[in-house]
Amino acid sequence: MKCDEIRERMPDVAAGFSKPTIDEGMHLESCGTCAQELKALRATMAVLDEWQTPEPTPYFDTRLQARLREEMAKPRARWFQWFRQPVLAAAFTVLLGIGVGVFYTRDSGMIHHGQEASIAAPPGTAVGDLQALDKNHDMYSDFDLLDDLELQQNVAANP
Amino acid sequence: MSTAALDPGMLMAATTPQASAGFGGVDSDAEIMLRAKAGDQSAFDYLVQKYRRPIVSFMYRMARNAAAAEDLAQEVFLRVYRSRESYEASAKFTTWLYRIATNLAVNHARDTRHERPEVTVSLDEPDEESGTTLELPDGTLSAEQMIVRRERMMAIRRKVDALPEQQRLAVIMHKYQEMDYKEIAEVLKKSESATKSLLFRAYETLREQLKEFI
Prior knowledge:
Chain A is mainly α.
């Protein structure tokens, strides 16, 4: 047996949790270093034994019962339990808001296009003219720009 | 919902031979915990009663003061109760129990590492760290001798406290909770050989540090 092997077992032997095996006993008889180490470790364990802890106080049991009672009174966790966490709740609310916003934006766009397609009036009628004007709204909104361009061309031609 | 755990008499009865006979013998603690998981309140009471003293003792040695130790020990049992439905008997019950206790103790130690209480010795009041009072039960020790004994105990405690966290945990579980290497390794999530080495180094340090007390 090697010294390293018995040293691994020394804490158990020194604490009295197990006895040396026959091989270990023979090694301890022949190896002064290991025998000395075991003796010192036994003395250390004896000193450590002096560190005692008191019994739990009566208050411990009373308090534990009260805390268990509180625990039992709590409703069992539900699938939405996570929503009670403020950060998750805030994140969920923001996501919900974004989702609702996106839905209504898309939805209103579809209805607008659908309405255009469904109530197209025949050309020549008042409604038809208004729809034609509406379609050309972009062009009419650029009229001012076209006027400016024309004015610039006139200035360039007649400085 | 059962209220059995709320009855102090029930808690005490769990330690009597008659009451625990049903849980003794071939039933392991893991099996008893599985019964608690299935809703058997008396099984949970039995485990609380069986492990209340060792867990309080473990927490006394890990925490900085007696009051915190009892609070932490209660929290261990509350966590066992809360997580009973997710319990799987894949390891020893004590491994699971001490893993919960270790996590709580380590977190508490980290949170309060700057809050070391002042060490005082009083004849009348319980000691903040050990929770003991200087009573003279048999009259064999004088008050002065009791003070010397307590100071010595506190000095030993400080030497253990000074160990690196993992070594301290290993020593407390080995020396005072009498856990074997394999179980300590499982609680600390280390290999068994690494745990042996950790313990050997810890005891080597303590052997040097405690020389003055031998």
